[in-house]
Design goal:
CATH class of the largest domain in chain B: Alpha Beta
Low-confidence stretches of chain B: none
Strand content of chain B: 25-35%
Largest interface: A-B, 21 and 34 residues
Shape of chain A: flat
Number of domains of chain B: 2
Strand order of the largest sheet of chain B: 6-7-8-3-9-10
Number of helices of chain A: 16
CATH class of chain A: Mainly Alpha
Number of strands of chain A: 0
Oligomer: heterodimer
Helix content of chain B: 25-40%
Helix content of chain A: 55-70%
CATH superfamily of chain A: MetI-like
Mean pLDDT of chain A: 82
CATH architecture of chain A: Orthogonal Bundle
Distance between the termini of chain A: 15 Å
Largest sheet of chain A: none
Distance between the termini of chain B: 33 Å
Structural class of chain B: alpha+beta
Number of helices of chain B: 11
Chain lengths: 343, 372
Amino acid sequence: MALFPKVGRKQPGVRFAWYTVVAILLLGIFLHLLPFYFMITTSFKTTQETFAIPPTLWPQEPSFKAWELIFNVTTASSSSERIRTLLPQPMYIYFRNSMIQVLGAMAISLPVTAFAAYANSKLQQGRTARWFFLFFIGTLMLPFAVTLIPSFLLTRNFPFPTPNPPLIPGTENPFPTIRIWNTPWAIIIPAGFNAFNFLLFKGFFDTIPNSIIQAARVDGGSEFNIFRRIVVPMSIPVFAVAAWFQFGALWDSFLWPLVVLQSTDVIPMSVAINNLIQAFQQAGVTNADQAMGASQAFQQALDAGLSWPGLMVLGILQTIPVFVMFIICREYLLKGVRLRGLK
Amino acid sequence: MAKVEVRDVVKRYTAAQEDASRFDRDRPALDHINLTIEDGEIISIVGPSGCGKSTLLRIIAGLESVTSGQVLYNDYDVTDVEPQLRGVGMVFQDYALYPTMKGKGNLQYYFEVHQRTEEEMEARTREVARIMGVGFDLLMGQKTDTLSGGEQQRVAIGRCIVRDPLVFLMDEPISNLDAKLRESTRIEIKRMLRRFKVTTVYVTHDQQEAIFMGDRIVVMRFGKIEQVGTYDDLYYTPANLFVATFIGSPPMSVLPVTRNGAALVLGDGSRFELSDELAAVLPDGPMRLGMRAEGWLVDEGVAYPVRHIERIPTEQAAFIHTMVDGVHVTALVPLDYPQVDEVRLAPNWEQMYFFSATDESPLYTPGIPELF
């Protein structure tokens, strides 16, 4: 696994190359950690200090106001009614929404995707397998922006991608539709099959020798039992990588939840934080009364510490689950990354 | 225990199943195969790569479907029965152990999916460990990917016998082992097969192994069975030129010859007088002469330059390699044959094979000698 062989490391050229590579890697680590450093230090700064030019590297007057405020808000014991206009629900509601949507989507998507990949890899053969593979992979080729509007319409009148459901022929009545718009299902159902994870699973299942599957068949295992008892235990690293990718992607997804979720009791963290930023930026620019009320609320929130430092606290909270997920999957992830040569 | 019968089986891969790597689309993988394997018999299947021997084995196991024809176990038609229900045991070339289970788990998967009792499972596992001999218990507690090739192979065989199979199917089970281990393992397998008296189909590409294992040997080529018989049948009365050249080591040399009256003329002009017996059966004109290493009378007849003398102490014999009429020829001599530059050779008419010049059909074969 070594980038450089052990032999010949003392040669000046090799040594120079070695230190160059180390330097580049250190630079990479530094660049990746810098935003986190800034996020954490800013959360301890006062509001005035966040606007200081040049920016301070270390909080001059460390303040825990932002953390206190977020703690109050998340425990729903906020003193001020005005803050509610900026943050209509306690923070844990958004956190819970995010969790429900992400875990719900993964609970459906991982089995579905793994089944599809297994069937394509081991149960289909030859030309059939190739065409199905292209069909699944083809979904990766459409940019999200292209499918955004049709997908949105689908959530309005599921299963019709039209603004209004078509009429039943010969009658005046429209077809019955299900409105999954503005429910967690609008996040969960579209994520039910993940083409990238399909590729990941298929790539791994292809490396399992057919003879193992055949041996299990001769032993009398049904196809599902073979998958459950033989294939899944072999594939845990791949499941970990797939789960991690999907968790990261769904937890941080923003545009799609913004489009399909509107009421404050279903929006996830990412949308809630964005709404808060919007509120900050728009405070005092609409009509006078609103401006008055909004800017008062804004002022009060500022006083309470909910400004950029507060946002940074929210950002940290938003990031924590991804870290936790990484730590859970860490051992398998490293194995899986080595396995598949990813990232 | 079962009699296995393969009746007129044709296997043709359709375009939808075809892998891009497969060659020869027009030819069926198996072409009207008929084979009866008696209860308790061990059959070896040999043939060059791509001859369909593994396909035939997988069809008997039910892992591949047939295009037409039937497979019968004890006269019961199992053609459409799933492999799960056939009750066969199979050993694969790469052993195909379940990598996430320990040795024991590999053996017990069968009982798990058949919902047998824990006690039966334990009892059978112990029984197998006893049969498999020394050290098998130790393999049971280890992850299979930590085992060596030979150990994995023992576990694979153990997994196969733990269920008391109707039919044993072995797909080149020892070809991944090193030469020494292969030798001892094949004795081990043979001993076990004798003891169980289970109907066995043993696929291999190594004729030595096939001879050692099989009561009868099946030679296949291009999806067809060329000949079925004991080793002596195949060796002394080959059904055609292919079987004659495929069986035997060093391989048979084939010389184009012409019969001219009482003499046989080689391409290089040398003449040999035919024996009376052969003169009576052989037709006039061109034909092909097949000679094995032991078919030469040394130190009589025509002189040929020696290319190399290969001495094999374990066989107490030496082989003289030379060229006759541009064809590589090997002659068997005693181990202490002197180092010479030229050797005189003449055909021993009792051990000659004659084949038609135009097709592979035999004109004359020596027949099985009566040794006892």
